[in-house]
Amino acid sequence: MFNDIDIFWINCSENRQRYEHINNILEKRFPNNKCHHIEAIMHKPKYNGITMAHMVAIMKGMTLNHPFIILEDDVTIPNDFLSGTDAWSRISKNIPGDWDIVYLGMNGDVEGSPIADNIVKLSPYKKGQWGTYAYVVKHGSIKTKLLPALRFMTDSIDEQYNTLFGDINAYCIRPSLIRPNEEVCNTSSIDA
User: Fold this and answer.
1) CB contact at 8 A, 131 and 107
2) Per-residue pLDDT tens over the stretch 137-156
3) Domain boundaries along the sequence of the chain
4) Radius of gyration in angstroms for the set of CA atoms belonging to the chain, rounded to a whole number
5) Which pTM value belongs to this model?
6) Residues 150, 154, 160, 166: what is their CA dihedral angle, to the nearest 10 degrees?
7) Residues 111-136 pLDDT 10s
């Protein structure tokens, strides 16, 4: 179900190092998947632009009839991800059917209830956990849950989602399958 999936990746194409980093990974590892570049929105404060870019990715995903992945440009992806024999293929079979978002990794002090091996249902209103660098969005949740909830942005995309975990069913894979690449993270050209 999740192995043939569209991938939306967010990047400011002016930052060639980050662009080439993620584009090379996607072209090499996912030649049969549809990968869509979402231009980062340069806006101050920084979190507004990043949040808007995520919203653009979600709105473009509305045209699909299946789940899709949103990635930021500074991630490290396992070589076998989406191969059919990888950890995601095994773990995703146990994700409850009520899911709206599944984080493929999360940093910070993750709080929630274990549901199955490697799957945590996230607790609402937990500050200090972030994972919008790699997550799966359920197509059927966009119009009814995600877009209405994101209509009034008050915080960064991670914190905005964190406040919604009581209204949306958010799950996290633990340990993380996809992680930020610290070397690439330090090359941002976005001013806070």
Assistant:
1) yes
2) 999 999 988 888 777 777 77
3) 6-185
4) 15
5) 0.90
6) -80
7) 899 999 999 999 887 777 778 899 99
